[in-house]
Amino acid sequence: MDSIVEDAIDEAEHSEDGPAQNGAGTVDASETHTQTTGKMSDDQLEDILQDLQTDITVVGCGGAGGNTVNRMAEEGIHGAKLVAANTDVQHLVNIEADTKILIGQQKTQGRGAGSLPQVGEEAAIESQDEIQDSIQGSDMVFVTAGLGGGTGTGSAPVVAKAARE
């Protein structure tokens, strides 16, 4: 057994292609691997961090969706753009969000959808450009709605379709 070990050591010491060894006959680990890390500036690290960042948008449709977005803002949730879309201007005024969209202004004049999903859908279609602008550049879009009234029930599928496109 001693001769096999000694033979291997001798062969490694005399091999031109082998890793460098120090005087004790052991391999210097720093020379066996290609260096993959090194000193980086803060700017370089920030660039890497920026590349890793995912742009998330949460769109709250209608009253319940707006309440969800408002609650997220109140809790100080960071890292997502918060958008509230509603046909009811009174409700929208009281919502805290990064972007507020009064959808269907021509259709509803800001008075709500009257619990009619078709009105909510038509309002969202009327405001498709504003909806698309609010989610532009997002990597992920979460759509939230209560589905018990008109605006959220009707507009959420329109917002989801815009996000998919």
Automatic annotation (TrEMBL):
Where does this protein have compositionally biased stretches of type Acidic residues? 1-10
Q: For the Tubulin/FtsZ GTPase domain, which residue ranges apply?
A: 55-165
Where is region (Disordered) located? 1-40
**Protein family:** Belongs to the FtsZ family.
Q: What superkingdom heads the lineage?
A: Archaea
Q: GO annotations under biological process?
A: cell division
Question: What's a single GO MF annotation on this record?
Answer: GTP binding
What Pfam families does this protein's entry cite? Tubulin
This protein's name: Cell division protein FtsZ
The residues forming the signal peptide are none
Organism this protein belongs to: Halobium palmae
Keyword vocabulary terms for this entry? Cell cycle, Cell division, Cytoplasm, GTP-binding, Nucleotide-binding, Septation
Enumerate the SUPFAM superfamilies for this protein. Answer: Tubulin nucleotide-binding domain-like
